[in-house]
Design goal:
Length: about 325
């Protein structure tokens, strides 16, 4: 099951619910800041629990609720929630391809690195990384999605549609104002201790290979503070005071969560491989864990177990394909 989290935001109670549903399996954090669960035995019961926890608010629009937001910004969590509501309120937008991505960037360029189809950045709307003179509002993003639907033919993303950004902007009475700019993703991803302007502390925590142990997830939920899951497969805990933050580090660092930005584990990722995919030709997870001990200081590696290459991170990286113990 893939559980979509608009803007990566999840309440402690909802994380607790996912941890219980996962049983002994890892919660897999995805490159769009969502969570996947494997091996769910009773799908109907799981669906009921997710619905009760507010994690499945719409059957019709579930596939299109793809929204990432800069995880350090508290305001953008509310904007992501409004965008999600707006998407679900427009019946026609259920027809969007599931690959279409919305992004809300706080000016740091972090989620802009994902080259979303429609994005709020620097106060204006960007379409596939092109700035426009259209307003950076929730309504403008929804109108752009509608315009893409009208123009798309068989295309899945704005980038696939010839002259897509310009044509969508023109549909909305605007224009593209500059070249496509897609920043590099934050490398390493932000982990550690962040003092916030309001005096609170945010903790960024790396999750080895994006696989969160359900017992560790329950510890994170028990802290009972706002949580964000990032497109870099990390977690943020917001709104802590210094004492609480020190306690969280003391409790969660021994449970494999990463607070050190220099950890090589932050620069290695992998598909699930033969731990859950029928196409797999090898154990990508084990290979990635081994590689973490040997990669160079600036290297970024993604390990996959077939040529399909799922889950590749944005930005420069070396791809390793594992096949029956061999790799290339
Ligand atoms: S890359 Fe291949 S083995 Fe890995 S998850 Fe995708 S399809 Fe499965």
């Amino acid at each position: 099951m893939r559980v979509r989290l608009p803007g990566g935001r999840i309440s402690p109670a909802a994380l607790q619910e996912l941890a219980e549903l996962a049983g002994t399996n890892a919660l897999e954090l995805t490159s769009r800041g969502n969570v996947q669960l494997r091996g769910v035995a009773d799908l109907d019961a799981a669906r009921e629990r997710l619905t009760a926890a507010g994690l499945l608010p719409s059957e019709s629009h579930e596939r299109v609720r793809n929204i990432v937001a800069s995880p350090l910004s508290s305001d953008l969590g509310d904007t992501a929630a409004r965008l999600d509501e707006g998407l679900r309120a427009r019946a026609e937008l259920a027809e969007l391809p599931g690959r279409v991505l919305f992004a809300l960037d706080d000016g740091t360029g972090d989620v802009a690195a994902l080259a979303a189809d429609a994005e709020l950045r620097d106060g204006v709307m960007h379409l596939d990384g092109h700035p426009t003179d259209l307003p950076g509002t929730v309504d403008a993003l929804l109108d752009a999605a509608r315009a893409f639907l009208d123009l798309r033919g068989d295309e899945w993303r704005v980038r696939d549609l010839p002259d897509g950004a310009r044509r969508i902007a023109a549909e909305l009475g605007g224009t593209v104002t500059g070249p496509r700019v897609v920043p590099a993703p934050p490398t390493p991803p932000p982990v550690g201790w962040f003092d916030r302007p309001d005096g609170s502390v945010t903790l960024g925590m790396g999750v080895p290979l994006g696989r969160l142990d359900p017992r560790t997830a329950q510890f994170v939920a028990a802290v009972d503070h706002p949580i964000a899951i990032t497109p870099w497969r990390t977690l943020f805990l917001h709104g802590l005071d210094e004492g609480a933050a020190e306690t969280v580090v003391r409790v969660l660092a021994p449970k494999s969560l990463i607070f050190d930005a220099t950890s090589p584990l932050l620069r290695v990722s992998a598909c699930v491989g033969d731990h859950g995919c029928v196409r797999a030709q090898g154990d990508a997870l084990a290979h990635a864990a081994e590689l973490a001990g040997t990669i160079g200081d600036d290297e970024r590696v993604h390990v996959v177990a077939c040529e399909r290459g799922c889950g590749a991170p944005s930005g420069e990286h070396r791809r390793v394909v594992v096949r029956d113990g061999a790799d290339d």
